[in-house]
From TrEMBL:
<feature type="repeat" description="PPR">
    <location>
        <begin position="185"/>
        <end position="215"/>
    </location>
</feature>
<feature type="repeat" description="PPR">
    <location>
        <begin position="361"/>
        <end position="395"/>
    </location>
</feature>
<comment type="similarity">
    <text>Belongs to the PPR family. P subfamily.</text>
</comment>
<dbReference type="Pfam" id="PF13041">
    <property type="entry name" value="PPR_2"/>
</dbReference>
<dbReference type="InterPro" id="IPR050872">
    <property type="entry name" value="PPR_P_subfamily"/>
</dbReference>
<feature type="repeat" description="PPR">
    <location>
        <begin position="221"/>
        <end position="255"/>
    </location>
</feature>
<feature type="repeat" description="PPR">
    <location>
        <begin position="291"/>
        <end position="325"/>
    </location>
</feature>
<keyword id="KW-0677">Repeat</keyword>
<protein>
    <recommendedName>
        <fullName>Pentatricopeptide repeat-containing protein</fullName>
    </recommendedName>
</protein>
<feature type="repeat" description="PPR">
    <location>
        <begin position="256"/>
        <end position="290"/>
    </location>
</feature>
<feature type="repeat" description="PPR">
    <location>
        <begin position="150"/>
        <end position="184"/>
    </location>
</feature>
<dbReference type="Pfam" id="PF01535">
    <property type="entry name" value="PPR"/>
</dbReference>
<dbReference type="InterPro" id="IPR002885">
    <property type="entry name" value="PPR_rpt"/>
</dbReference>
<dbReference type="InterPro" id="IPR011990">
    <property type="entry name" value="TPR-like_helical_dom_sf"/>
</dbReference>
<feature type="repeat" description="PPR">
    <location>
        <begin position="326"/>
        <end position="360"/>
    </location>
</feature>
């Protein structure tokens, strides 16, 4: 019988690249040639290490990944690049493991690799994903020991300040940048403008937009305009929003669908829906026809005006024009139908969703359950509740308590026993609601109480 040809380092890399199962890939990496002579160990390539570490990191198989890194540390034929460790740090950030991300950064020199601002910024981003804001600042203040900050460093920190509402500190960082020879770029201004607009500080946002051109020779991009348009739209200043849009056209800054979607929503909010058709036509002329978000904004506006017929027509139009309605499209209509007491229509649309290529999500169920419960359609609400529990969608605790109280008040004790049995299996009802419900059942019927007790005993088994 012929002996199998040994796997070469190049062949191992090819096999690892093609193997989708990370654990099978790990087995391949650890035993590329099962019958190789111990006197002649396999010589791995840096590419093989990169491939297996990437696969394990994406699958969050971190203990095994660390074993591979230990093996890599002992290699003497090559030195891993800094980008290799950046991938590892990023993976730990996505997994919300800040200590491991920090440890990886600190270990880079032990692999004979020099750290630069690139890995430093990668770590800052990982800490940002983990909401480790204080650690980010402490790390930044001590960074001079290993690297020097660049614009990206400050951009990450300014964004972190915005997330925690420390715009005063964000401003200080911005002022500090030129003093340290680091000049703000369009991302710096975009981040600051975004957080200023999010906090309603529109005058300062517009002042910064002007300063970036006059003082720094940096021109605003689409993201900056999007933040400003959203900000002024929220306060109802549509004239300024449209002037900004016209300014973008004048300066040949591409308008994307998000800009138009913001304006469409603002027009509905201001009761100017008649102007929407002209805006949609402009969208098509500029090569970014209405998408699902655009339609959802229109559906939301129409539903707020109780024009459900027009909202239904938009659902059909979306399907015809290739923008398939998503679950948000249906949830918006179902919610407003429930608010208006049109519960049969809401239920019909809910049941029609799968036929239209969209399945209800947890929000769909919660909205319909709340609407049926508040509309005293208890049997229908109980059916929706059972379906929710079967699919693993938990109802809101407040909704459950309200439903139980309504069943008690309306003396629907048999239905109450059935509902309590279902909720009890999932431990989805609090102690107070149990006490109220059991008290109501006891007062009503000894037989019902025994039936409830039997359900509870079976559920506990």
């Amino acid at each position: 019988m012929a002996t199998a040809k040994p796997v070469s380092p190049y062949r191992l890399s090819s096999l690892l690249r093609g193997e989708k199962d990370p654990r099978l890939a790990l087995g391949l990496f650890l035993n590329p040639n099962q019958h190789a002579s111990p006197e002649k160990p396999f010589r791995y390539s840096l590419l093989s290490y990169d491939l297996i570490v990437t696969k394990l990191a994406r699958a969050k198989i971190f203990p095994e990944m660390e074993l591979i890194l230990q093996k890599l540390r002992d290699e003497t034929d090559f030195t891993p690049k800094e980008s290799f460790f950046c991938h590892v740090i990023t993976s730990y950030g996505r997994a919300r493991q800040p200590d491991e991300a920090m440890r990886t950064f600190e270990s880079i020199p032990s692999f004979r690799c020099q750290r630069t601002v690139r890995s430093f910024n990668t770590l800052l981003n990982a800490l940002l994903k983990c909401a480790e804001y204080e650690r980010m600042m402490d790390f930044f203040h001590n960074m001079d020991k290993c690297v020097y900050p660049d614009a990206c460093t400050y951009n990450i920190l300014i964004n972190a300040c915005g997330k925690v509402g420390r715009l005063d500190y964000a401003r200080n960082l911005f002022v500090e940048m030129p003093k340290r020879g680091v000049f703000p770029n369009v991302v710096t201004f975009g981040t600051l403008v975004y957080w200023l607009c999010e906090n309603g500080m529109l005058e300062e946002a517009f002042r910064l937009k002007n300063e970036m051109v006059t003082d720094y020779r940096v021109h605003p991009n689409g993201h900056i305009y999007a933040s400003l348009i959203k900000g002024v739209s929220l306060v109802g200043d549509l004239n300024k929003a449209f002037r900004l849009k016209d300014e973008m056209v004048r300066d040949r800054i591409q308008l994307d669908a998000s800009i138009y979607n913001t304006l469409v929503n603002a027009l509905f909010q201001a009761g100017r829906k008649d102007e929407v058709s002209g805006l949609l036509e402009e969208m098509r002329e500029n090569g970014c026809g209405p998408d699902t978000v655009t339609y959802n904004a229109m559906i939301n506006g129409l539903c707020r005006e109780k024009d459900f017929g027009a909202a239904y027509k938009l659902l059909d139009e979306m399907a015809e024009k290739g923008s398939r309605p998503d679950v948000i499209s249906f949830n918006v209509i179902i919610r407003e139908l429930c608010k208006e007491g049109k519960l049969n229509e809401a239920n019909d649309l809910f049941e029609d969703m799968p036929r239209r290529g969209c399945h209800p999500d947890v929000v769909s169920y919660r909205v319909l359950f709340d609407g049926l419960s508040e509309g005293l359609q208890f049997e229908e609400a109980a059916l929706i509740l059972d379906e929710m529990l079967f699919k693993g969608y938990p109802p809101r605790g407040s909704s459950v308590n309200s439903f139980v109280d309504s069943l008690c008040k309306e003396q629907r004790h048999e239905l109450l026993v059935r509902v309590l049995s279902s909720l009890g299996k999932g431990n989805l009802i609090d102690t107070d609601a149990w006490v109220r419900a059991i008290s109501a059942v006891c007062d009503s019927s000894k037989a019902l109480f025994l039936d409830l007790l039997d359900h509870l005993i079976k559920g506990a088994q």
